[in-house]
Amino acid sequence: MNTKKLEKLVRNIPDFPIPGIQFKDVTTLFKDADALQEMSDGLCEMYKGKGITKIVGIESRGFIVGPMIAHRLHAGFVPVRKFGKLPAPTFSESFNKEYGEDAVYIHQDALNENDVVLLHDDLLATGGTMVAAVNLVKKFNVKKIYVNFIIELEDLKGRDLFPSEIEITSLIKYDI
Ligand code: AMP
Fold first, then answer.
1. Which end of the chain, N or C, is less packed with Cβ atoms under 10 Å?
2. CA 151 to ligand 1 center in whole angstroms
3. pTM of whole model > 0.90?
């Protein structure tokens, strides 16, 4: 996978949604047919043969590439969503954001102990969102947990929050 090519297609929007944030916009990568295909091929190559049974995508940008990989790995897709979106009984996990608290939710029947899970989101910043999602998945005593991001903002050291047994990959790394 030519990650340099993918990196060039990510658009940086300074001061969005608030001053000081360098927003990494993946829509400019997603709209490029060759890049989208290459990223999908590359991710499938990285995770094929690992016995992955479920892709868990994080709302909302994890709902774009997550199902593509699920389809190609012949895995199921499970959404982790924000408050009030999932209709059946849920487990929840709260986490700290820069200002205040937030929470993520998963259906109580979404996974089981035979699952090998790949969690996917577009971007790792402080890590709060994905750590909460990993904690949700852990409630099911699944066999193994993998985590993937398209982009990692390395300076924020979000990776350090995860337990060492969790294998984390990211395709594009920025110093911010
Ligand atoms: P965090 O919990 O701090 O790792 O934040 C990750 C979530 O916030 C992901 O779902 C991202 O889509 C979004 N996010 C955080 N920072 C950025 C950024 N600089 N550019 C784009 N999305 C971001």
1. C
2. 9
3. yes
